[in-house]
Amino acid sequence: MTSTHDADGDLAVRTAGLTKRFRSGQVAVDGLDLAVPRGAVYGFLGPNGSGKTTTIRMLLGLAHPTAGRAWLLGSPMPDAAARVLPRVGALVEGPAFHPYLSGRANLARLDAGDATADPRTSRRRADAALDRVGLSAAATKPYRQYSLGMKQRLGLAAALLQPRDLLVLDEPTNGLDPQGTREVRHLVRELADGGATVLVSSHLLAEIEQVCTHVGIMSRGRLLLQGERAALTEREAARLAVTTRAGQADAAAEVLRGLGLADVARDGRALPGGAGTARLTAALGPTPPEKVSAALVHAGVDLVGLEVDRPSLEQVFVELTGEGFDVAR
Ligand SMILES: Nc1ncnc2c1ncn2[C@@H]1O[C@H](COP(=O)(O)OP(=O)(O)OP(=O)(O)O)[C@@H](O)[C@H]1O
Asked: Where in the numbering of this chain does the ABC transporter domain appear (predicted)?
């Protein structure tokens, strides 16, 4: 008998060697080992066509893997789908909404199809979900009159009809305006604060990066890197920029080198501080920036400015792949 439980119970989502080869021969997902800790907000990031949706469809049992395995909340998919999926709220492309029914009636219809839901409290659940996604005012409008953003919000509301342990949201900010995008970020944070694990995909890295505790970055069907968000950006060297009085540049450079900072260089650009100032840059490495400022002051250098530039995830991605992030394959 095969085990029905994943030994690693502290992962809300796990895959091992998950692979999808389409009939065309294209390998859309290639040996994926995802690890989403319970309670995480996991940003599943990658350019258009990198394999995020295909992965999510396999996780939810909507597509069959060519190879590999997947576990949701510790149970294998798709074998445990009937038991696990009621605990999982999902937003994937094209939820089946009826065009002539209102948003509220569509939710009521979905709710009625859920054997675990109490029909007496259906209306309350639908209204609460509409309220959470900011659709209360459009609750009675027919779905076909919804804008793309409103449709997306209704998809989110459907995922939130029940309390969930895990939310899998595929591109939830698609079609939303900046205000809607902010609201989705806020909602994701709220769901995580309530104890849920959230797996959220996006091809717009910067939109989601800020709310994630963890990220996995896809490129051409492979997981390029995965882990705690802070660690991923910090492992790439942060750059330090120091502005001093022009006559003190050499002394400052000596201090920086003395602290073991690599790649110390004079920045020749025109400076906001004016002609009397000089700017030096260096790779910060593990040295705390406050140690740098203390050492400079101690050496009698007048510190006009000190900045630390940590690379964004997008910069990390571009450095790793040599490609822009938002590109179609
Ligand atoms: N049913 C299919 N048959 C053949 N190829 C497919 C199919 N579905 C997806 N693909 C291909 O697999 C690759 C991965 O697509 P997928 O939709 O998983 O990417 P994605 O990362 O979700 O992209 P996006 O950000 O654009 O949604 C793409 O090259 C796509 O063209």
From this structure: 13-245
- Give the residue carrying structure tokens 């999982």: 88
Mean pLDDT value across residues 280-305: 90
What is residue 2's predicted lDDT score, i.e. its pLDDT?
A: 40
Q: Is residue 106 located within the same domain as residue 82? A: yes
- Specify the residue with its C-alpha closest to ligand 1, atom 12: 28
Buried b (16+ CB within 10 A) or exposed e, 175-187: ebeeebbebbbeb
Per-residue pLDDT reduced to its tens digit, 40-67: 999 999 888 899 999 999 999 999 999 9
241 and 281 share one domain: yes
Q: Which of 18, 19, 20, 22 to mutate to test the pocket of ligand 1 (most atoms within 8 A of CB)?
A: 22
Q: Which atom of ligand 1 is nearest to the CA of 51?
A: 18
Among the atoms of ligand 1, which is closest to the Cα of residue 54? 18
What is residue 88's three-state secondary structure? strand
Q: How large is the average pLDDT for residues 185-207?
A: 88
